[in-house]
């Protein structure tokens, strides 16, 4: 990684307390970047329900990343783990005179099928204490990208902004990057025999425009900026306040997508009363996602909230609320309408 990237690494912060699972970010990305027939099953940005098996299916158990600083190759996701491209019973539902008895569904066989959001809104827990939350996932543009180290052709490199980019003319299509990435956010295009992944909307970045996922988020849940920029929202949330955490830091790639962990309502007792001292989302589960630092981050969030409820003020909460949406965009606040489409 170049010095410019280390000093000005682009990073995302996603506030999971504001993500409503609307899929605007994932659709904005897909419409912009994966419109070819060979890319139908690719969702460079995906919003999954947690706890859940995710996309690709069971990605957290596939391995990759680093172990004691040494590169580890994991499992390459199968096409079925990404899924998609199903045939539906449109004819029977819309034109077959079913009288409402047939409903739209993927056609048999259904067993073993999967796709992005297959387990949407399922979550975990037992009634009345069921729980779930949404997590947008994209390429983490890691500071030590295992995909780039594993690539035998040198197609993957970090650019001056710290984004991990692929030279498709060099990519040999052997899929080693998919095995090395512990987050399994690399897709394989069988028609073109290349890997593909989120490129951080770098053509927009070069024009001063925020990535589509950030710009389109209606919940104001996504921030972008440079980690080295003192006073920026991203830098303060990650480094100054320490409430934005990387996903699975134990993978050792130093990801640059950070998450503000989700708060949760108190659970209910058997008699229906509120257990004021409990947490609906188990803290030990959140620790498996974000590491031990998640407890301090949640405590800090709760403390700041109590301060405001008591009549005080919190610069941290003002930053998270983002009263002005331009605050989410960091240095990339140019209007995308000013860009002339070049294809």
Give the structure's gist in a few sentences.
Helix content is about 25%, strand content about 15%. It is an alpha+beta fold and about 350 residues long. Strands 10-1-12-11 form a 4-stranded mixed beta sheet. A two-stranded antiparallel ribbon has the order 2-5.
Q: Any key phrases for this structure?
A:
4-stranded mixed sheet; 12 strands; alpha+beta; Alpha-Beta Plaits; disordered N terminus; about 350 residues; about 15% strand
Protein model, in words:
The protein is an alpha+beta fold and 343 residues long. It has a single domain, classed as 2-Layer Sandwich (Alpha-Beta Plaits), CATH 3.30.70. Helices cover 25% and strands 13% of the residues. The protein is built from twelve helices and twelve strands. The strands form five sheets. The chain has a four-stranded mixed β-sheet with strand order 10-1-12-11. The radius of gyration is 21 Å and the shape is globular. The two termini are 29 Å apart. The model is unreliable at 1-6 (pLDDT under 50).
């Amino acid at each position: 990684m170049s010095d410019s990237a280390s000093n000005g690494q682009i990073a995302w912060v996603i506030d999971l307390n504001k993500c409503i699972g609307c899929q605007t970010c994932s659709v904005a990305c897909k419409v912009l970047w994966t419109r070819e027939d060979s890319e139908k099953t690719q969702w460079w940005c995906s919003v999954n329900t947690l706890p859940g098996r995710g996309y690709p299916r069971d990605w957290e158990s596939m391995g990759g990343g680093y172990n004691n600083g040494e590169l580890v190759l994991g499992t390459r996701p199968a096409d079925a783990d990404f899924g998609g491209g199903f045939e539906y019973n449109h004819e029977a539902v819309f034109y077959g005179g079913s009288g409402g008895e047939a409903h739209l569904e993927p056609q048999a066989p259904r067993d073993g099928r999967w796709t992005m959001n297959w387990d949407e809104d399922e979550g975990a827990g037992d009634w009345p204490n069921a729980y779930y939350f949404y997590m947008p996932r994209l390429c983490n543009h890691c500071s030590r990208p295992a995909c780039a180290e594993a690539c035998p052709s040198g197609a993957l490199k970090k650019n001056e902004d710290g984004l991990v980019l692929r030279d498709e003319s060099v990519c040999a299509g052997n899929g080693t990057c998919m095995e090395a990435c512990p987050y399994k956010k690399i897709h394989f295009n069988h028609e073109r025999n290349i890997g593909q992944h989120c490129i951080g909307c770098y053509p927009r970045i070069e024009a001063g425009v925020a990535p589509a996922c950030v710009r389109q988020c209606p919940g104001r849940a996504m921030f972008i900026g440079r980690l080295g920029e003192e006073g920026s929202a991203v830098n303060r949330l990650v480094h100054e306040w320490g409430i934005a955490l990387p996903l699975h830091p134990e993978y050792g790639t130093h990801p640059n997508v950070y998450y503000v962990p989700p708060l949760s309502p108190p659970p209910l007792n058997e008699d229906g009363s509120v257990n004021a001292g409990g947490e609906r989302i188990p803290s030990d589960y959140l620790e498996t996602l974000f590491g031990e630092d998640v407890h301090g981050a949640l405590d800090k969030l709760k403390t700041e909230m109590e301060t405001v409820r008591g009549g005080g003020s919190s610069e941290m909460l003002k930053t998270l609320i983002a009263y002005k949406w331009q605050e989410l965009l960091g240095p990339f606040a140019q209007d995308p309408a000013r860009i002339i489409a070049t294809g």
